[in-house]
């Protein structure tokens, strides 16, 4: 290739050489600006995956790289949100399966895009940046030397021309200096021209190579995407066909439901069923409370198995009003202002109930009397009759215009009102000891959610309450939340985690015939060492908090700290969903119950279950050692969050666990301040009573007040436990059973 500057002109330092030199210098400056723009916009591509109009914003290059990372992070967050949608449909495999395939495809696309961005950065930005730094900057450095020697050369030429003939020594000195400077100038000029020529030559293949590499990266990206969607095409077609079926089913259901308005004309306020000597009646009644206000509350009442129970509209749990109706008598009430009332009188108390109409009142009175008589008869006879008749309100009230519908009554349709130990032992697997399979299960570990025999329970007690909290199924009192914890887990669920990989080389499996040493070795290996827990990540797929999209959490699981972080995040997600089984699994795998998630405002596990509003999950993490006064990044404790949610039940639970209400968040608010701002009278009262109780503990009369405070908290807790969806109950309602 011909040199871009004439070397002869260069040695003569002619005006033509200077003109050519200036042109090439300007050309190099333009090249640098253009390459800086290309490098900048390649980084913009990393951020936005598209080119924008030219702007001289090279200084924002690094900021754009960070924005690019944020773009990829946002895309990852979007995929995570789709995964959360799939978790929502966890009970519907026909929806979960295509959603998981979509998630996998989106994840693969994101990987390909990340690879394209990395290759673009290497091929364009990094390559051209190296060319600018190594070549263009080197030419500029040489230019500075050239300019300096050129100025020195001009200066010595002027001095040489001004030296007088009469000053012989000075003339000789100037001549020697001129000769040396001229030689240095010519060598520097040749070096400078050589570098310019090489740069002008190299720029062509350097730039072309960079953009050819870019196009190759594009080709790879689109080829990978094409292959991916060829594999995904059958899923698209299959899912589209399934969508059409779902739409047709929805339309059919809509038409079916539109025709159900005819049911409005039927009166099914009260339903009476008989099975042999047993009577079962259910329906809404107004119940007069026993407090000073004598308020009336509407409840769903059921008479079954000689018991009278009721429940609130939005609750599952029942409250037993009368344990044994054989000890009661029923009579109508006509001496009070309210109509359609009747009274149930037991040896210790009486209950006033009100029906919606005179006919309904008569049905209730007659049916209750018949049920009481049937209970007496049933106690002396074991006859079991299978014929069942169902009579509605209208059919019982009249003889001429009624129609009796006969149907078979399935025992599973009749709700059972059992004591806690009966409910717990009725669960599959709970009829035997969780550790030795002994059938004599009279004890339980409430933080593990398992039932135990007396021998194994003794060993559990020796482990300490930080490992296992043992309670008698028959002798101890059981509150609703602890019972629900037990009913949420059970031996079968817990052993899935603690006996996932049993290795009897570590400890021999205990049986009901094992001696104490053998039991102790087995139980310590199982719960203290957790030797049989499967801590591999790819096995964590049996909780609701996981799906096939575990890739975001399972990448680079090469160290113990990575596994620990994964299980902590697994526990955090389970806590946010109030997933007790998921929490149990994460704890079995070694998650920290008091772990702080720095990626989410430093919230703790307790903060997450409080935000879920679930009392049972909150009780479960407390049973497993959650500390209630830990703060997040905004200095909020769980009590702050429960108060912000106006959740009276959670506030009670935290106060019972010793929550410190004097802690201030970063807005200098304590729990009382938040409750006052929310105008929540119940929580304000509770917090002030708790504070007063603390102050009176040091008083000589403090003991007499502490019992009163504990009773108030227990009343609020029981009310909230019976109605977990209610976040705010008034004190008047709290006094109503």
From TrEMBL:
The keyword Lipid biosynthesis does not apply. It comes from Dinothrombium tinctorium. It is found in: Target cell membrane. One of its GO terms (cellular component) is other organism cell membrane. It holds the Pfam family Ank_2. Keywords: ANK repeat, Exocytosis, GTPase activation, Membrane, Metal-binding, Neurotoxin, Presynaptic neurotoxin, Repeat, Target cell membrane, Target membrane, Toxin, Zinc, Zinc-finger. The keyword Zinc applies. GO terms for molecular function: GTPase activator activity; zinc ion binding. Its main location: membrane. PANTHER family: BLOWN FUSE, ISOFORM A-RELATED, CENTAURIN/ARF. Residues 418-540 form the Arf-GAP domain. One of its GO terms (biological process) is exocytosis. This is Uncharacterized protein. ANK repeats lie at residues 634-666. Residues 278-373 form the PH domain. CDD domains: BAR_ACAPs, PH_ACAP. InterPro entries: ACAP1/2/3-like (IPR045258), AH/BAR_dom_sf (IPR027267), Ankyrin_rpt (IPR002110), Ankyrin_rpt-contain_sf (IPR036770), ARFGAP/RecO (IPR037278), ArfGAP_dom (IPR001164), ArfGAP_dom_sf (IPR038508), BAR_dom (IPR004148).
